[in-house]
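Question thread 4412

I'm putting together a teaching handout and wanted feedback from people who do this every day. The idea is simple: show students a protein as raw sequence, then show them the structure tokens that encode its fold, then repeat with a second protein so they can compare. Below is the first pair exactly as I plan to print it.
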Amino acid sequence: MMKTLVAIMRPRLRPTAPACVAFLLCAWTVGGCSSADSAGGALESDGKKIVATISGEPITMAELQEQLGSRLAELDFQQRNERYELMERALDGAVRRRLLEAEAASRGLSLQEFVAAETAAEIEVTDEEIEDFYRENAAALEGQTLEQITPRIRDYLENAQRERALRKLARELAANAEVVLLLDPVRAVFDNGDSPARGPSRAAITLVEFSDFECPFCGRFFTTLKELEENYGDRLRIVYRQFPLDNIHPHAVKAAEASLCAHEQGRFWELHDLMFTEQDRLTILDLKEKAGRLGLDRAAFDACLESGRYLERIERDAEEGDAYGVSGTPAIFINGIHVPGGAVPYDVVAEYIEKELRRIERG
């Protein structure tokens, strides 16, 4: 059960556009949405356009693009992705409602009667769960006592249970109803080049992770990655992209360099796994000790780590992440589709993978 109101992602302290988080609870009503054409696309289409002159000397759109760097691409991707996510939620709600209405009618029940009957057994909030929720969210509850806010917490947790029950029921009904979703997702197109990767190059699913070796949330997601690899095997390829949060994680950049120095020797993933297993030991001496323990050529590794030759490459990874709205770690993309929420649990990532596999099977 999700018991917290706020999910925290560590911010990458770079000069990127501000981010915002919206918490949406599903309802029976389905809303519409629209989005204006992105300013980024308009600027990119006409770089020679003159936007100002000074004593007859022009300032062009191209100059603005150069000044803004990846910010326009980031804004464009975010706007398109937010629009898609709104449309997807609306579509999921419409499909679910229609499935439930059809099943209710087949049983001679109203929609409300059917929902109540099917979810009643799934809804039970205990006093202990309410107390746990209160403790975990006390700072956000503005000094209200447990007794004052218990009815609201109970309603919130019951609604969350009801929502899960309805989603489960809708999935069961959809399995027998030949539901085909045709709404095209928004995809990031990455230049992964020779970024560290494991899994077949022709795998059906490519998972790109922007990550930080010192980030505790990335450490938590590390175990999820292992489970995904075990369950999806050759259907999954994992690509690691560097996104060290240098302002809050003092060892992250050097750890990123170390991983690429190990990559030179074909040992990236061994050092990757060891660093995430021992996140509390990432000083330069620790990194060199790990390389020695793994049997790497220590002279070559040490010289590489001291040279700083991968700093530019790490920055390029971070800039590409910026362009696709990455502002914290881990940031996960499935075949270019962003999975919001950072270190989300296994079943969330698996749902994105399964949806993508169904799209591929459909052709």
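The second pair follows. I'd like the answer to focus on this one:
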Amino acid sequence: MIQFISNTWSVYITVLTLISIAGCAILLKSQSKQRKRREGGAPEVTGHKWDDTLEEYNNPLPRWWMALFYITIVFGLGYLLLYPGLGSYAGLLGWSSHGQYETEKAAAEALSKPLYDKFAQVDIPTLARNAEAHGMGERLFLNNCAQCHGSDGGGRPGFPNLRDNDWLYGGTPEAIVETITQGRQAMMPAWGDQLGPEGVRKVANYVLSLSGSRHDAALAAEGKTTFETLCAACHGPAGTGNPAFGAPNLTDHVWLYGNGSEKDIVQTITQGRNGRMPSHAGVLTPEKIHLLAAYVYGLSH
């Protein structure tokens, strides 16, 4: 684990904590003494006076009340001895929240493992049609994927729609498992500085022409050469895309960023895109990924 605090900070926190506890004990001790009486045998007062008749006595707290505070101090010292709380000191019991999480996670995995194991050897297309597997996969999706792709898998700008058959990295069962397991990193570079605003507009209009969208034919004709030089290596000479690079098909009307307007395409070419799909290998077991992939596969089949 990464150590976020230096040894100096550890010592500082430890000393400050112990001084604070000692200060509480000294304060309690100072307040437990019986105050001297005033002339005439009257108790000492705090100086607060109301209506010239009512005064507040400066008496110590009852002993049972003081004892509760002392018990709190002893409990605090005992806790700091057994558990982490003094800088980087781990405590005699060696407990940590991370360790407890891993223990509870392992126990939960052991309990639920038989539920997932029975589907582990079933192929994904068959599993996608299983009602029980669908329900379990849906819960995995809602807990791990819906935040980006939406609760129905319909996606939103920058996050692919999983309900159609347009796949950046391939929609085969194997490709979906690989995407969930390893994650994906977009690699669309920014061309704004190299092409300039006018050059970007030309390429954008050529891209629009590939899908038959409304475009400026003169600008598109000029942008074709630039596309073939800079863009075809990933998107293909015809703009049909390449799953190996996650380069989208530009000949259809499916757009990951925006709705396919010239403005959206200009922004993509100018700034580039660096969307990231995180790896779930450390979050989900292979059996859960298998079940989740079946659910995702079933959304578009």
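Top answer:
Good format. For the second protein you could add a caption like this: The CA atoms of residues 93 and 122 lie 44 Å apart. The two ends are 42 Å apart (CA to CA).
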